[in-house]
């Protein structure tokens, strides 16, 4: 996909907006302005993709895309406005999950596109990035849904470890890694779909043993995961804005996860796997 | 420089920027910052629009439209909910009982 120079420059400005947004959000005095700057960057990027696509005739199906876009924007904004203050954490988890799901879908479609492309180092790296996005995006989606269910008290907030948990967890991880390697070596659409299923399973297994009090740390971790998938999608799609924005969120999100865990006197490893090794995580 | 190296350079520099810009965050802002970062990765919306716009078959278009819908929820909801959190945060500070103030 070729992007005109002016559009690339607009994406650069949007990327700078996102950097300034994160910077602003880390100080109480500038936090609200920072969030606003981020929103301005998002609007700029969105306008750019439509104007560039329209001007160069590279964007088809304009009407259904706009319909899906408007519905999504409205659902997100109304949901965020209506939700009770106390339910905000689970809403953030849900927003993170749908973002991860979107990244996974984009990656599945891109893997489908790559099947028709000539083999070479470029395709190889794109397949690695695509496989990564499919798995981690799916983990983020299902993991976020489970955190939502825990915080909303649709299920127990205590750590859940069922008998036979460990015998499932480790092999599922190994199978996922093997399938990802297979996807890179012999790409096929069905392998991509198998990876979606495995990612969804891993996401559930990752979050089930985490106790309710530790859930914010896990939301932050899944948030960083989604960031990384967006970065990988940026490489596959040849879009620098997605690469920069995704990497920013991935890096900042990882550090934030460590800081949050430290502020709560916990370690990230203990949060995730404490219930598995017998040292219980906070209920 | 090959294009692969350019991508790698952008990636590595972005990692450092991402770590650096939030390294001094105060602990009261952990949750809004997470929420703001969550909104920023909603920019996958651009990727979803691009694949939807180049879809050549109906199943691909439908999948891509679902991605557009989900990403749009992520990005608009993300920024709005972060703003609500921060509004609450800013408003709460003057309400703190100061010295000589009755509660």
Automatic annotation (TrEMBL), chain A:
It is a multi-pass membrane protein. Residues 8-283 form the NADP transhydrogenase beta-like domain. GO terms for molecular function: NADP binding; oxidoreductase activity; proton-translocating NAD(P)+ transhydrogenase activity. Its EC number is 7.1.1.1. The chain crosses the membrane at residues 6-25, 37-56, 62-80, 92-112, 124-148, 168-184, 190-208, 215-235, 241-261. It comes from the Bacteria. One of its GO terms (cellular component) is plasma membrane. Keywords: Cell inner membrane, Cell membrane, Membrane, NAD, NADP, Oxidoreductase, Translocase, Transmembrane, Transmembrane helix. It is found in: Cell inner membrane. It catalyses: NAD(+) + NADPH + H(+)(in) = NADH + NADP(+) + H(+)(out). Belongs to the PNT beta subunit family. The transhydrogenation between NADH and NADP is coupled to respiration and ATP hydrolysis and functions as a proton pump across the membrane. This is NAD(P) transhydrogenase subunit beta. It comes from Microlunatus kandeliicorticis. The chain holds residues 1 to 283 of 466 of the full protein.
């Amino acid at each position: 996909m070729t992007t005109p120079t002016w559009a690339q420059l607009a994406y650069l400005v949007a990327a700078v907006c996102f950097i300034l947004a994160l910077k602003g959000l880390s100080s109480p005095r500038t936090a609200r302005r920072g969030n606003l700057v981020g929103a301005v960057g998002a609007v700029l990027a969105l306008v750019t993709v439509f104007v560039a696509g329209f001007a160069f005739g590279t964007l088809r199906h304009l009407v259904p895309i706009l319909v899906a876009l408007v519905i999504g924007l409205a659902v997100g904004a109304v949901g965020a406005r209506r939700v009770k203050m106390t339910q905000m954490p689970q809403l953030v988890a849900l927003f993170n999950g749908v973002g991860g799901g979107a990244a996974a879908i984009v990656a599945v479609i891109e893997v489908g596109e790559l099947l028709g492309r000539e083999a070479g180092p470029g395709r190889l790296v794109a397949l690695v990035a695509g496989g990564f996005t499919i798995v981690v995006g799916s983990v983020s989606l299902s993991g976020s849904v489970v955190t939502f269910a825990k915080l909303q008290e649709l299920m127990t907030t205590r750590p859940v470890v069922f008998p036979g948990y460990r015998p499932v967890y480790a092999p599922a991880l190994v199978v996922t890694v093997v399938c990802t390697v297979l996807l890179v070596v012999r790409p096929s659409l069905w392998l991509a779909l198998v990876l979606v299923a495995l990612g969804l399973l891993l996401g559930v297994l990752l979050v089930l043993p985490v106790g309710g009090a530790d859930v914010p740390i896990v939301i932050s971790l899944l948030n960083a995961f989604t960031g990384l998938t967006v970065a990988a999608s940026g490489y596959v799609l040849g879009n620098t804005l997605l690469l920069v924005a995704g990497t920013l969120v991935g890096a900042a999100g990882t550090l934030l996860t460590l800081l949050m865990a430290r502020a709560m006197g916990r370690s990230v490893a203990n949060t995730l796997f404490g219930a598995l090794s017998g040292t219980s995580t906070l209920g | 420089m090959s294009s692969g190296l350019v991508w790698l350079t952008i990636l590595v520099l972005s990692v450092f920027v991402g770590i650096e810009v939030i390294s001094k965050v105060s602990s009261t802002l952990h949750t809004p910052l997470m929420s703001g970062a969550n909104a920023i990765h909603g920019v996958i919306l651009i990727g979803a629009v691009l694949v939807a716009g180049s879809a050549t078959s109906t199943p691909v278009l439908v999948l891509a439209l679902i991605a557009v819908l989900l990403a749009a929820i992520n990005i608009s909801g993300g920024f709005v909910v972060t703003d609500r959190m921060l509004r609450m945060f800013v408003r709460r500070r003057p309400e703190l009982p100061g010295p000589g103030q009755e509660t």
